[in-house]
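B., you asked whether I could sanity-check this one before it goes into the benchmark set. Here's the sequence:
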Amino acid sequence: MILEDYIPEDLDMEALIEDQAPFNPYPMIEAVEILFVVKPLEKSFNLQALDRWVKKGSIRVMNRAENFFLVKFTNPDDFSHALFEGS
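And here's what the prediction gave me:
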Protein backbone atom coordinates (compact mmCIF):
# COMPACT_ATOMS: atom_id res chain seq x y z
CA MET A 1 0.00 0.00 0.00
CA ILE A 2 1.50 3.30 -1.09
CA LEU A 3 0.35 6.59 0.42
CA GLU A 4 0.48 8.40 -2.94
CA ASP A 5 -2.31 6.19 -4.25
CA TYR A 6 -4.75 7.68 -1.71
CA ILE A 7 -3.97 11.38 -2.15
CA PRO A 8 -6.16 13.06 -4.79
CA GLU A 9 -4.16 14.72 -7.53
CA ASP A 10 -6.17 17.96 -7.37
CA LEU A 11 -5.51 18.43 -3.62
CA ASP A 12 -3.54 21.64 -3.00
CA MET A 13 -1.38 20.92 0.06
CA GLU A 14 0.03 24.47 0.21
CA ALA A 15 -3.47 25.94 0.52
CA LEU A 16 -4.25 23.54 3.37
CA ILE A 17 -1.10 24.57 5.25
CA GLU A 18 -1.82 28.30 4.79
CA ASP A 19 -5.38 27.92 6.15
CA GLN A 20 -4.23 26.37 9.44
CA ALA A 21 -4.02 28.47 12.60
CA PRO A 22 -0.54 28.90 14.10
CA PHE A 23 0.52 26.47 16.82
CA ASN A 24 -0.57 27.56 20.30
CA PRO A 25 1.54 25.94 23.07
CA TYR A 26 -1.02 27.06 25.71
CA PRO A 27 -4.44 26.26 24.26
CA MET A 28 -7.57 27.32 26.12
CA ILE A 29 -9.02 24.23 27.72
CA GLU A 30 -12.77 24.04 27.99
CA ALA A 31 -14.14 21.44 30.35
CA VAL A 32 -17.18 20.86 32.49
CA GLU A 33 -15.05 19.82 35.47
CA ILE A 34 -11.56 21.23 35.73
CA LEU A 35 -9.58 18.66 37.70
CA PHE A 36 -6.43 16.58 37.95
CA VAL A 37 -5.86 13.15 39.35
CA VAL A 38 -2.52 13.35 41.19
CA LYS A 39 -0.35 10.43 42.29
CA PRO A 40 2.61 11.61 44.39
CA LEU A 41 5.94 9.94 43.69
CA GLU A 42 6.97 10.13 47.33
CA LYS A 43 5.22 8.58 50.31
CA SER A 44 4.72 11.94 52.01
CA PHE A 45 2.75 14.62 50.19
CA ASN A 46 2.66 18.29 51.18
CA LEU A 47 -0.74 19.72 50.22
CA GLN A 48 0.55 23.26 50.73
CA ALA A 49 2.86 22.71 47.77
CA LEU A 50 -0.24 22.83 45.54
CA ASP A 51 -0.69 26.51 46.43
CA ARG A 52 1.83 27.42 43.71
CA TRP A 53 -0.72 26.19 41.14
CA VAL A 54 -3.32 28.73 42.28
CA LYS A 55 -3.09 32.29 40.94
CA LYS A 56 -6.70 33.55 40.63
CA GLY A 57 -9.17 31.06 42.08
CA SER A 58 -8.99 28.22 44.54
CA ILE A 59 -8.54 24.47 44.53
CA ARG A 60 -10.21 21.63 46.35
CA VAL A 61 -8.18 18.53 47.16
CA MET A 62 -9.90 15.21 47.81
CA ASN A 63 -8.07 12.15 49.08
CA ARG A 64 -8.81 9.01 47.08
CA ALA A 65 -7.82 5.37 47.54
CA GLU A 66 -4.22 4.18 47.33
CA ASN A 67 -2.58 7.61 47.74
CA PHE A 68 -4.32 9.29 44.80
CA PHE A 69 -5.63 12.84 45.09
CA LEU A 70 -8.31 14.60 43.07
CA VAL A 71 -7.50 18.30 42.63
CA LYS A 72 -10.43 20.42 41.43
CA PHE A 73 -9.87 23.99 40.15
CA THR A 74 -12.36 26.87 40.25
CA ASN A 75 -10.52 28.89 37.60
CA PRO A 76 -9.60 27.60 34.10
CA ASP A 77 -6.48 29.81 34.05
CA ASP A 78 -5.18 28.12 37.19
CA PHE A 79 -5.79 24.72 35.60
CA SER A 80 -3.85 25.75 32.47
CA HIS A 81 -1.05 27.14 34.63
CA ALA A 82 -0.80 23.87 36.60
CA LEU A 83 -0.98 21.75 33.45
CA PHE A 84 1.57 23.62 31.33
CA GLU A 85 3.79 25.51 33.79
CA GLY A 86 3.29 23.99 37.26
CA SER A 87 5.71 21.66 38.91
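One thing to flag: Residues 76-84 form the longest helix (9 residues). Otherwise nothing jumped out at me.
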